[in-house]
């Protein structure tokens, strides 16, 4: 068994904003609006307008200064399948309390990160996710860590596995020297970094693994049995890659995507498997603000401020109750937008439809 923190050299907990409602915005335009509005305002005006206050690790004046001087809009994984915009800088206790930039910067380029927790305080293990963006500290649960697959640096690291040059720097696999020397160099096949990540992801989602080792998972970082059997490894890596693609919503463009042109006419066009059971329909055009949701007869019903209803067929109980960490992604995604009175776009409905894929619940089991 290899503990996750003995496989990946660099890992860190996610962003800790100290002021989520202000620091995270649903759209990049929302973030740009804050930049415009905050520029001429003084501290008392900012305090009143945005209902924010100074705390030990977050000061209004520091946040404003950092936002205006180091504006760097980036998408962050806030909760499972729920991405938000923020301004990511190198400055701690600025716009973001703890941006974890030394780890976050490796997601400025193409990357994948394994999200995990140290301990599980419940009777089942489900605190693992994949992300191609940096994350919030509560992305899956109480405290979520992320280990990037790739490490980008301008100088060579003798104890890391070099992959290729990236501009003026180098790209490395983020594996420890111990893992390279004691595992990768001992097996008689050469898996790619992506295959290793996919294998680990499959094992961590295995019901057998989750049930058998739950007592260990309650006390420390997860540990993975790394096999020397090439056939067994490839089988699990293939399953893991399928899950990675599903959880990164990589099938949006080829299967089951709710096209914008379909949404505009009140019926989401479907491209085929695996999401042929998920259908979106509503009897009005334009965007809307959700106020209530309910499920009935394998349908998700979203009521809007105008008293209209959007219907998503095919959302079974298993899909709606599917959990990652301590969250039900669909329920959480909608609750936030109801609370904040967010006007949803056609693209948001397409995203919600893709998140409702039965494949996620089916492959998880």
Structure description:
- With 365 residues, the protein is α+β, with helices and mostly antiparallel strands.
- The protein contains 16 helices and 15 strands.
- The strands form five sheets. The chain has a four-stranded antiparallel sheet with strand order 2-7-5-6, with helices on one face. It has a four-stranded antiparallel sheet with strand order 12-15-14-13. It has a three-stranded antiparallel sheet with strand order 8-10-9, with no helix packed on it.
- A hairpin with a 2-residue loop joins strand 13 and strand 14.
- The radius of gyration is 22 Å and the shape is globular.
- The two termini are 23 Å apart.
Which tags fit this structure?
4-stranded antiparallel sheet; 16 helices; 15 strands; 19% strand
Ends: how far apart? 23 Å
The structure class reads: alpha+beta
Number of alpha- plus pi-helical segments: 16
Residue share in β-strands = 15-25%
The low-confidence parts are 252-273
- Number of E-state strands: 15
Largest sheet: 4 strands, antiparallel
Strand order of the largest sheet: 2-7-5-6
Radius of gyration: 22 Å
Helix percent band: 25-40%
Silhouette:
globular
Mean pLDDT comes to 87
Oligomer: single chain
What's the short version?
The chain has 365 residues and is an alpha+beta fold. The chain is built from 16 helices and 15 strands.
What is the topology?
Blueprint: E1 2-3, H1 4-7, E2 12-13, H2 20-23, H3 28-38, H4 43-50, H5 60-69, E3 73-79, E4 82-87, H6 101-104, E5 113-116, E6 128-131, E7 145-148, E8 150-153, E9 161-166, E10 169-173, H7 177-184, H8 193-205, H9 207-212, H10 214-217, E11 223-224, H11 230-247, H12 260-264, E12 279-282, E13 290-296, E14 299-304, E15 309-313, H13 317-320, H14 329-339, H15 346-355, H16 358-364
Antiparallel strand pairs: 1-11, 2-7, 3-4, 5-6, 5-7, 8-10, 9-10, 12-15, 13-14, 14-15
């Amino acid at each position: 068994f290899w503990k996750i923190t003995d496989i990946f050299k660099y890992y860190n907990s996610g962003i800790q904003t100290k002021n989520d409602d202000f620091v995270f915005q649903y759209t990049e335009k929302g973030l740009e609006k804050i930049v415009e509005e905050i520029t001429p305002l003084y501290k008392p005006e900012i305090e009143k307008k945005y209902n924010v206050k100074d705390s030990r690790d977050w000061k209004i004046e520091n946040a404003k200064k950092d936002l205006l001087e180091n504006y760097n809009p980036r998408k962050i994984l806030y909760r499972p399948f729920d991405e938000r915009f923020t301004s990511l800088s190198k400055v701690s206790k600025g716009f973001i309390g703890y941006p974890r930039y030394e780890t976050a910067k490796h997601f400025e380029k193409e990357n994948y990160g394994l999200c995990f927790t140290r301990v599980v305080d419940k009777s089942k293990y489900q605190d693992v996710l994949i992300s191609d963006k940096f994350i919030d500290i509560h992305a899956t649960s109480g405290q979520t860590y992320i280990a990037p697959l790739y490490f980008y640096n301008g100088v060579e690291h003798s104890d890391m596995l070099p992959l290729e040059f990236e501009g003026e720097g180098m790209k490395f696999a983020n594996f420890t020297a111990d893992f390279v020397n004691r595992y990768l160099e001992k097996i008689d096949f050469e898996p790619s970094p992506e295959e290793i990540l996919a294998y680990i992801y499959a094992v961590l989602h295995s019901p057998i693994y989750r049930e058998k080792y739950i007592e260990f998972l309650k006390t420390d970082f997860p540990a993975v049995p790394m096999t020397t059997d090439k056939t067994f490894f490839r089988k699990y890596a293939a399953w893991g890659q399928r899950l990675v693609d599903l959880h990164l919503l990589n099938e949006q463009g080829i299967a089951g995507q709710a096209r914008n042109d379909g949404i505009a006419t009140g019926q989401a066009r479907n491209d085929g498997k695996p999401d042929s059971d998920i259908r979106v329909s509503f009897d009005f055009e334009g965007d809307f603000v959700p106020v209530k949701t309910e499920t009935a007869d394998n349908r998700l019903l979203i009521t809007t401020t105008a008293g209209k209803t959007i219907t998503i067929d095919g959302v079974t109980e298993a899909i709606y109750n599917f959990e990652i960490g301590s969250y039900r992604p669909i329920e959480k995604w909608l609750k936030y937008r109801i609370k904040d009175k967010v006007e949803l776009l056609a693209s948001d409905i397409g995203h919600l439809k893709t998140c409702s894929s039965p494949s996620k619940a089916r492959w998880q089991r």
